[in-house]
Amino acid sequence: MKTKKELRKEILQRRDTLHLDKQKINSHKIAEQVCSMEEFQNADKVLLFASYKSEVNTEEIFHTAQTQGKELYFPKVIGKEMDFFRVQEKEDLIEGYRGIWEPEEDEKRKFKPKTGDRIFILMPGAVFDEDGNRIGYGGGYYDKFLQKLKDKMGDGMTEMNHVSIVAVAFDCQIVARGQIESEIHDWRVQYIVTESGIIA
Question: Which of 2, 124, 175, 184 has the most CB atoms within 10 Å of its CB?
């Protein structure tokens, strides 16, 4: 079995070789599917990310959420953790950690979930398997954020039932079941949306 590091390197190289036109077409197909999901349509708050390098482009999803009047939040890396801050326009993002576009740290704009919030979290990643296991980019930022969110929302998973955890990826980033070794702190995603469809 390949290590996470080996799999990450192999799949990212594969993703980087996708032609720009193909990335654009497939990103559009993925965005259409994400925006038609019931979980997205019903969400009050959408936690998005700004695409980096050859990641699925999320601009279309951003504009749709904006048009529908949803509250939009983007991640900012702060030390070894990550928090989300409200973004209303694309211009609210500045170049930050590793050259990724991020919001500025602003306590008034910080994501603070409330009871009953319907939250849609869109996640990037390097590799996914058909069971929803994920390999990120090595920092564990999303795993730590999701654990913190669960702790904030109280005991048990009752409030987390209002939280949808969805990943976007190209087909070339999906590996077969059993290829990703899951550890205790790893969070699975509920859905993976690729150009070919939704893996639940």
Answer: 124
